[in-house]
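Project outcomes to date are best conveyed with an example. Our students and postdoctoral researchers have been running inverse folding experiments weekly, and each run begins with a structure described purely in tokens. The record below, which covers 191 residues, was selected by the lab manager from last quarter's runs and is presented without edits.
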């Protein structure tokens, strides 16, 4: 069965930190593809500075630019908001019965995992590949049979950093792909 890694995020905007993880997971693990799932609204985040989901999806598509093994997904646009990961996983499993879905997350997410809707069901029915984030180790999840810890390289930048830099009229060249930067410049967003 084809193993697909699902990397969920607001991608507001997508940056090279996200892209390095997607590339690593798609090419250096047993996954055959990684889907970048654009979440309209993360249940644990405020909506204030969130760009509309279509612009965020477009930036993801510009960033991956038809790269092999990496795709963008708008599946959550059609599901109830805020976007609960378990609902999306169940929906995808029904829609693509021949694919095996693996959840990709950073070790920082493990700290709040118990606050996620139906996290026990996520861990009962799905495998999770975790990449390291500085300051967050495996903790209580180190020996969990459904969780695999990967050695993805670290790149400590965030979308918040990029949004603040743009607001301050600082250059964010190299932090995100040029095509995404052009899109942000042309649309005049995050200012
Ligand atoms: N530099 C990075 N390295 C590894 N993981 C990252 C990095 N930046 C974000 N992530 C992870 O990618 C996933 C999606 O991220 P998200 O779209 O929320 O981006 P973010 O940069 O954390 O955004 P924000 O700064 O707006 O909170 C999250 O699980 C987040 O922890
Ligand atoms: O399902 C949940 O309860 C849940 C709680 C928090 C976060 N998530 C999802 O996890 C993804 C990454 O979250 P974050 O906070 O690291 O940006 C994001 O796409 C959210 O939709 C999901």
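After processing, the design step wrote out the following sequence:
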């Amino acid at each position: 069965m084809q193993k697909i890694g699902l990397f969920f995020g607001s991608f507001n905007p997508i940056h090279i930190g996200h892209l390095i993880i997607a590339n690593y997971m798609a090419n250096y693990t047993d996954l055959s593809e990684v889907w970048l799932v654009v979440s309209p609204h993360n249940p644990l985040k405020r909506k204030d500075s969130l760009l509309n989901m279509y612009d965020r999806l477009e930036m993801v598509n510009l960033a991956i630019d038809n790269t092999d093994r990496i795709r963008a997904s708008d599946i959550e646009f059609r599901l109830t908001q805020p976007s609960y990961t378990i609902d999306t996983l169940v929906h995808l499993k029904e829609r693509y019965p021949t694919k095996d879905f693996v959840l990709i997350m950073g070790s920082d997410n493990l700290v709040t995992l118990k606050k996620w809707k139906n996290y026990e069901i996520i861990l009962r029915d799905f495998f999770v590949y975790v990449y390291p984030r500085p300051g967050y180790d495996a903790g209580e999840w180190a020996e969990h049979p459904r969780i695999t810890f990967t050695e993805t390289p670290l790149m400590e930048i965030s979308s918040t950093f990029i949004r603040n830099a743009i607001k301050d009229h600082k250059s964010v060249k190299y932090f995100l792909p040029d095509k995404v930067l052009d899109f942000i410049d042309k649309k005049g967003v995050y200012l």
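The pocket of adenosine-5'-triphosphate (ligand 1) is lined by residues 9-12, 17-18, 21, 105-106, 108-109, 133, 155-160 (CB under 6 Å). Residues 2-156 form a domain with the Rossmann fold fold (CATH 3.40.50.620). The training component of this project remains on track.
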